[in-house]
Amino acid sequence: MSARIVTLPGDGIGPEIMAAAEQLLGKVGDFELDERLVGGASIDEHGTALTDEVLDACKSADAVLLAAVGGPKWDSTDPGKPRPEQGLLGLRKGLGLFANLRPVRPSPALLDASPLRRDRIEGTDLLVVRELTGGIYFGDKGRENGSAFDTCVYSVAEIERIAEVAFRFARTKVTSVDKANILETSRLWREVVSGMAKEHDVYFEHLLVDNAAMQLLSRPVDFDVILTENMFGDILSDEAAMLTGSIGMLPSASVGSDGPGLFEPVHGSAPDIAGTGKANPLAMFGSVAMMLRYGLGRESEAVGIESAIDRALEAGLRTPDLGGDATTEDATKAVLSYL
Ligand code: IPM
Ligand code: MG
After folding, report:
1. pLDDT tens digit sequence for 321-333
2. In whole angstroms, what is the distance from residue 42 CA to residue 137 CA?
3. Is residue 124 domain-shared with residue 231, that is, in the same domain?
């Protein structure tokens, strides 16, 4: 039986890169695709960024592939207005996807495409393990008498289960990133993760998030697994993306303890280039590879896609974000030709 994948193109460049991903999937194998609305597209149609029906369809799928959500059309500071991002957060929470994996491995062909010098980034191969369903993203928030508040909460169990993932993926080292000099949630985080480190045979260190942001640029090669909470992981992974040359390169997998995973590029909906055909589909292709690997247990096809991406880049493929003029279509053709 072919795997059933719910596809969520979303907004902005989302539909363009999802179309590219569908071409890729068509070449890789036989999949049953079920396309649904999420984000701004769902707000326009149903008044909410995620309907129960779409969440149910995702729950019963083998995997969920999402492109991007958001855009100026739905931007508002009015707390009563629906936001596209609520669709994504609703999926993460609704599917119990507490672990977000963001591998950062610059393609050899792009070592000179990063704003950082080649000698700084050569050899970088790290994984950001970001907690995805807790922290300030999901705590109590609101407005009261001219003030606004966002609450950051973490339980021991939430910290343990994400740290477990980090230790499982570590090859040489786990760097746990927090702000334990200021935040109580970070002190609990540090306490729990330190205790777990004693039971694992890998090098372990703590870094404060501001220092981690700096070291990610000064010595990226020294990182293996970066374990961190929701918002720090959001920020550090965008920063780490630039080690690969462009935010258009970074894929991600979001997984829980059971049920389907969700796979999506780290970048957003890039409304400024939506509809121009210039979006870089490579982060999306990398996310398809992660879906095959972690969501569908098809490792060899995942590797095939990843090496096709590297070879296309090696042969000179550059979309505008990488300083070239290849279109989404050109990039798709190039990668397909190396599969
Ligand atoms: C990401 C994005 C999301 C996040 C947004 C779109 C809600 O920035 O996946 O990194 O903040 O988690
Ligand atoms: Mg982000």
Report:
1. 999 999 999 999 9
2. 21
3. yes
